[in-house]
Design goal:
Its EC number is 3.5.4.5. This protein is of the alpha+beta class. The protein has helices spanning 3-13, 53-63, 86-95, 118-121; strands spanning 26-31, 36-40, 69-75, 101-105, 112-117.
Length: 130
């Protein structure tokens, strides 16, 4: 596990805008060429218009010219594992392989609480035909 991924997820979580849920989340993506991109959740009074941390990190990665996720780390506000929502699982699947590691971190220490392969979180990945 790349420590830069942990540090980036924790730092992003600390910048989250979550006044409605009080549940700040940070995510960091490691690309196949070693770059790290991060994102945080950004809530909105019109609830469905908020953005998840994972989609923010993917947007940063794509804006940075990258298209391949090698690993992702996600951290919430406390010592419980913060699972990605269903939509974020599919967004991650757009750019990651089935065996891509997904690390869920302890929000207090940054330790890995749970580790999954993407296919374990989304067993029937929807992919576009090429």
């Amino acid at each position: 596990m790349d420590k830069r991924l942990i540090d980036a997820a924790m730092a992003a979580r600390n910048k989250a805008y979550a006044p409605y849920s009080n549940h700040p989340v940070g995510a960091a993506i490691l690309t196949d060429d070693g770059q790290v991109f991060s994102g945080c959740n950004v809530e909105n009074a019109a609830s469905p218009l908020g953005n998840c941390a994972e989609t923010g990190a993917v947007s940063a990665m794509v804006a940075g010219g990258q298209r391949k996720i090698a690993a992702v780390a996600i951290v919430g506000p406390d010592s419980r594992a913060c699972q990605p929502c269903g939509g974020c699982r599919q967004v991650l699947a757009e750019f990651g392989e089935e065996d891509m590691p997904v690390y869920l971190l302890d929000g207090k220490t940054g330790a890995v609480l749970e580790e999954y392969k993407l296919v374990e979180l989304l067993p029937h990945i929807f992919r576009r035909k090429q």
